[in-house]
Amino acid sequence: MRHIVKPLFRHRMMPLLVVLQVALACAIACNALFLLQQKLVPIVTPDGVGNPDRLVVAWNIAPRGQPWPTSRLGQVVSELRAIPGAASASVAGSWPMETMAQMNGDVLGEGTHAAKADAAIYIGIHLVDTLGLKLVAGRDFSATEEGVAYKNIGMGASGPAIITRALADRLFPDGDALGHVVRIGDQAGAGRRTVVGVVEHLMRNKFGQDDREDVDYSMLFPGVPSNWPVPVFAVRVRSVAQVGEALKAFKATIKRDLGPDMVQGFDPVLESYGDLRDRALAQSKAAVWLLAGVSLVVLIVTLVGIMGLTSYWVQQRTRHIGIRRALGAQRRHILRELQLENLLVVGIGVLLGLVSAYAINLWLMRHYELARLPWTYLPYGAALMLLLGQLAVLSPALRASRVPPVVATRSV
Amino acid sequence: MFDYYLRLALIRCRQNLPMVSLLVLTMAIGIASCMTAMTVFRALSGAPLPGVSPYLYVATMDAREAVDKDDPGYKRPDSLLKLLDAKALVDAHHAAQQVAVAVAQSLAQFGSPDGKKSTRAYGLMAYGAALQAFGVPLRYGRPWTEAEQSSDAPVVVIDTHVAQKLFGIDDAVGRSVTLGKRSFRVIGVIAPWKPRMQIFNLGQNSGSVMGQDENFFVPAQASLDAGVGPFTSGECGKGAPVISFQSAAVTQCRWMETWVRLDTPEQANAYGQFLAGYANAQHDAGRFAYPPRAKLYGTQAWMTQNHAVPDDVHLNLMLAGGFLLLCLVNVAGLLAARFLRRQADVAIRRALGASKRDVFVQHLVETGLLGLIGGVLALPLTWLGLWIVRMQPVSYADAAHFSPGVFVILFALSVAVGLLVGILPAWRVCRQPPALQIKLA
Predict the structure, then answer these.
(1) Which of A95, A244, A332, A401 has the greatest number of C-beta atoms within 10 Å?
(2) Greater model confidence, A235 or B308
(3) Which has the higher per-residue pLDDT, B307 or B147?
(4) A360-389 residues touching B, CB cutoff 8 A
(5) Looking at chain A, which residue has its C-alpha nearest residue B331?
(6) B340 to chain A: which residues are within 8 Å by CB?
């Protein structure tokens, strides 16, 4: 070991430059990959919507002046249900993948401690059917429950709720969410919602710093939100073939029923849920490509840098290597020595890099809405960089191991 | 001497082309990524109204009049006030020579008197001397007077764009336009005007980053009388936030922002105290349900507070900066290796009488040249990077445009990068005494 460490101190510049490079690359790559992973979450997590190709959504609909009364919204829904091919129709306050109108709240499981979650709240009628959600426990809302009249939007009101499995697991870790009460906010007068059903997945419509669990924290409340200026309508169609026609009828209905009172300058958007989803995720997808590209270039640049430095470092020591070979060192010894040396130098760089990656993340967290870099990330980052270092040293080390012993007798 | 070094550098560059292209390419990528992020950042930072916004302040206070438990998102006082409060603040004339203005964005349908032509336009409903406060360039006519404002006279200031649409001419002063239910007299025509960035109603405008054209200015009360309200009514609820669109029934709503123009920090301090005094008086009188925590924000601080420049832009800039740093270290290492391989040449030059300084300068010239080539290569790469940004589905995509200023920075950056990465290797190569170098060789 001593003959590996000692030369590093004698010629400090080369190893120092490698250490610096690895540390920098490690800090950048860890943070970039972490950001990338977060942007990837809403793309790869199931949103819970069944048969998305048979769902059409109308949004960006807003009234001039006072919000439409709930009775009128209900009327529109019953007309939508009469559209040929419609299996189910809904009106809701917000909609998965539609980020313009959001209802979010901190919810708490009653009776449990410290279980709090930021969940999306979807208030509307026939949502389980229209969204095609998969109930894994409990039941859908009854007709009576759907007929509730809220004084306001309904976020703070009490009543029944259907929640996602992820949220149920979070709030009621014992697995007995059904029949328990979820409180909407921690104030004394907060609404209390009894869980009547659990659905497999339903993505919330607020994308931020998520992991795979909390992006799936959603709740459904029955009824039409009143005093809500931006209702969303949706129709589930029986077969894909009927989508085009249903979309046309849908558009006509919305225009006829609500068109005269709509805000100028807003045009209602009618589209399939798939298109809505694509658009909502377009920014995340673009960011993923960008970050992936940056990470890749960072790694390539580092690889090339280490390679260049090591090959010079090896070339400079050709004579030493020749002497060692003449004294009986075998090829694999030389190879292993150089690999070990690289491991040592890169290892120091990685250590520095991980510390700074963490420090940078802490700083970013203080100034921006960023999540904490999970420590489980660090071993992966370290392994990646060490592997990269080994890859970079391979070709120079092989070349060094082929140095014939006779070199020692020549003056270079 | 310089051109001799330059010639030497060129010859050496040709000797090991793959290595040199690697060096140059690494520098170019680093510079280009940094330039791309910087271009976007520069477009989105700086004063939204050059020369004006540094003196503009917006008033914030918790002016909610009922206990509001349905809005957990309300963390700090916002800038929305009732017209009543906005009027009171503006009419107090507490800013001696300065003007205060209350604004809200509106979308309105303008019609020519004969009803034949119409156009849709975004503009501001204001109380106070809006044009003066924001430094809006007036082409023809005049702004409205206090007398017109207090008598709710139907007057309007439009921009040349609307004037052209309705009348086919720029100077539309004296003509009348229909706005809502009433006919308004055009008293002034402004040049097309927009803030570089969105500054109005940031709390509810979080989606839009870039400023939009404000095609007209109209006294708020006259506009409301004609049935034209603000685009969003802010918050009107008793106990719960209710938002409505384009409603003229906004007496119960907090929908106006109050902007003040103050020239010195002392004036800003004094105004802040006045503001706090007003807000506290309202709270004491029982109107404001919460302690008002009134605060005056400078434009820049207000934009930072509301994340007017998306976090992504900052993060990308930092990422690009870090990447450039990595590229620098990388190139410095490769250059050191490159120079040290040539120690024999240096030793001969040193032995023939070249001083350390000569050797140092010679190597710096070489790296400076490499940096310059890197900069030239970075130019198309930056262009490509900006194109990629423009293709992104982000609200600030339009800001990613190449500008002459960027070109200058790019040039300076590339030379700086070239010299910076050269310092360590050049110093390293000229450090060893010539005798030792010859011996080593």
Answers:
(1) A95
(2) A235
(3) B147
(4) 364, 368-370
(5) A305
(6) 312, 316
Single out the residue of B357, B362, B358, B376 nearest to residue B417, CA to CA: B376
Cβ atoms of residues A235 and A130 within 8 Å? yes
Tell me how far apart the alpha carbons of residues B315 and B308 are, in angstroms, rounded to a whole number: 14
Q: With cut-offs at 50, 70 and 90, classify the pLDDT of residue B239.
A: very low
Say which DSSP state A376 is in.
Answer: T
Q: Pairing between strand B182-190 and B155-159? A: parallel
Alpha carbon of B300: minimum distance to chain A alpha carbons (Å): 16
The Cα B163–Cα B157 span in angstroms is: 10
**Which residues in B lie closer than 8 A to residue A227 (C-beta atoms)?**
237, 240, 242
Interface touch A297/B323, C-beta < 8 Å: yes
Query: Which segment of A34-48, A255-269, B197-211, B400-414 scores lowest on mean pLDDT?
Result: B197-211
Q: What is the pLDDT of residue A107?
A: 84
- Token readout for A333 is 């010894």
Residue A149: DSSP 8-state: B
Looking at residue B240, what is its pLDDT? 47
Q: How far is CA A365 from CA A42, A210, A276, A410, in A?
A: 21, 14, 31, 59
d(CA B101, CA A105) in angstroms, rounded, equals 35
Provide the residue count of chain B.
441
Predicted local confidence at residue A412, as pLDDT: 46
pLDDT at site B153:
87
Q: Does B22 touch chain A (CB under 8 A)?
A: yes
Nearest to A17 among B237, B332, B393 (CB): B332
- Is residue A235 within 8 A of residue A246, CB to CB? The reply is yes
| Predicted pLDDT of residue B270 | 85
CA distances from A412 to A408, A409, B441 (A): 9, 9, 8
Q: Is residue B244 very low, low, confident or very high in pLDDT (cuts 50, 70, 90)?
A: low
Task: List all residues of chain A from 116 to 155 with a beta carbon under 8 Å from chain B.
Answer: 152-153, 155
Q: For chain A, give every domain's residue range.
A: 2-43+282-409, 61-267
List Cα–Cα distances, A185 to A115, A140, A188, A386, B70, in angstroms: 12, 24, 9, 47, 9
B248 CA: distance to closest CA in chain A (Å): 7
Report the pLDDT averaged over residues A142-158: 82
Residues on chain A touching B424 (C-beta within 8 angstroms): 13
Distance in angstroms (rounded) separating the CA atoms of residues A96 and A406: 73
Mean pLDDT for B426-434 is 76
Return the HEC string of B151-174: CCCCEEEEEHHHHHHHHCCCCCCC
